[in-house]
Amino acid sequence: MKGAANLVFLIVLLAVFWFLMVLPQRRQQRQRQQLQQQLRPGVRVLTYSGFYGDVERVEGGHVYVRIAPGVVADMDVQAIARIVEAPAPPSGDEAGADGRPVSDRPN
């Protein structure tokens, strides 16, 4: 009888381990794969290092992300944390006559 109780306890322990460890990892893996499938030029992303940028192109396991004007970073696909919504265009009060925000214009 004691052996059967130990066996039931072991099975319950393995089931708890499965639900707490394996299933969440599978879910995260599926989410990463979906994110990688959505990467295409023009998509705004956040990297795990904290850079926001726009995808220039995707080649194999590499993503080329424009993080500043004239600066394109070659990153591994795994470095992309998430896709972010593009920022809203500035309102009329914040934009100059050329349509650019006042803070972006040279002095």
Automatic annotation (TrEMBL):
First-listed, main subcellular location of the protein, grouped into a coarse class: membrane
Membrane topology label: Single-pass membrane protein
Region (Disordered) residue spans: 85-107
Chain segments annotated as coiled-coil in the UniProt record: none
A single GO cellular-component term on record: plasma membrane
Pfam family, one: YajC
Ranges that cross the membrane: 6-23
The UniProt record lists the keyword Transport: yes
Localization, UniProt: Cell membrane
Record-linked InterPro entries: Preprotein_translocase_YajC (IPR003849)
Gene Ontology annotations of biological process type: protein transport
Domain of life: Bacteria
Keywords carried by this UniProt record: Cell membrane, Membrane, Protein transport, Translocation, Transmembrane, Transmembrane helix, Transport
Family: Belongs to the YajC family.
Protein name: Preprotein translocase subunit YajC
